[in-house]
Design a protein that fits this description.
Strand content: 35-45%
CATH class of the largest domain: Mainly Beta
Number of strands: 26
CATH architecture of the largest domain: Sandwich
Helix content: 10-25%
Number of domains: 4
Distance between the termini: 122 Å
Length: about 375
Amino acid sequence: MISSGLFVIFGFLNFLTFTTGDTEISCQFGTDCILPCSFNTGDEVVIHWILKPGDIQVHSFYYNKDQLDRQNQRYKGRTSLDPEQFSRGNASLRLKDVGVQDEGRYQCYTSTVKGNKETYIQLQVYAPIQEVTIRKLDNNLTCSSDGIYPEPNLIWTIGSQYDPPEKPRISRTESELYSISSSIPYNLKAPHNAATCSISTTKDQKKATLTENAQRNSSFTEATVECQHLDALPDQIVWRFNHNDLILTQSRVKGLNPTAEWQKYVKEVSPQGDLTLKDLTSKQEGTYTCESSNAKETATASTPLRLVEDGVTSGIVIAVIAVIVIIATIAVAAFVYACKKKVLLFLLFSVSIIVCFLFMIGKHD
């Protein structure tokens, strides 16, 4: 009697279906994705993968072979199970070339002589932001990126967050990926000579910065032009002359690679991308542009370079220092004059400094 009762209870448990909570899985667009599913091993394995809602047939296995007669057309040739893993209780589904249309809630139903089980997988698809491009076109700055999923956001920063008069333009391709672009009036002036465009999704974020620096005066002997520094070290650096002529590339993998034309002028490139040139001629006067990038950001910085003789450079520095000394001395003399009424002392200080300055300028000329 007890044995009969146990048999009935065991038979009843065999018909119970155990259900697990949803497991969230993220897969990159265009890659192969594994939807995990486990079960208690046993004979007479039955596996059904179904997309909810609508009970769309994704993949079925029973009678020791795949049963794909009722498989939905969009999954044809894209799904597979590994029967060698069934003995380990593994009924995971491989889904090839994942697309946006594959998103959704999947049910993995498994059955053996030992019982049934339902597992639910919530599949989310993402397409990472590959590149953010920012360019100056006529009187506008334009920022754009494409091949993104889910829907992206775009933010401009010029000194502080800048709200453009028009919302970003968003469109979708046939594969349901997003493209986004935005244009703003060009207005890069000191102190806000840099514009940053940030594009983000719930999965990813990347930004691009465009900087236009003031003219830099350097000697023919040696000149250093700064690259826009990234938050982290760049993976790739490209220097150009007058926007078109390639000077060099530098990467973590391949190292420094200057062109044959510029090799004799390149002294070094810092890890952040700053370029030091040597033994220059007037032909190297112009605009230098640095393009640096890593996984999270890109930056483009342009700097006009003017080359001057070493003596001229020194004279400019001396003149600036002299002007600073004059202003400081006159200020001190004025203070003394105000406090002690010593007019003669004020005049002597002023005249002597002016004479000294004129002497220095005359000596330089």
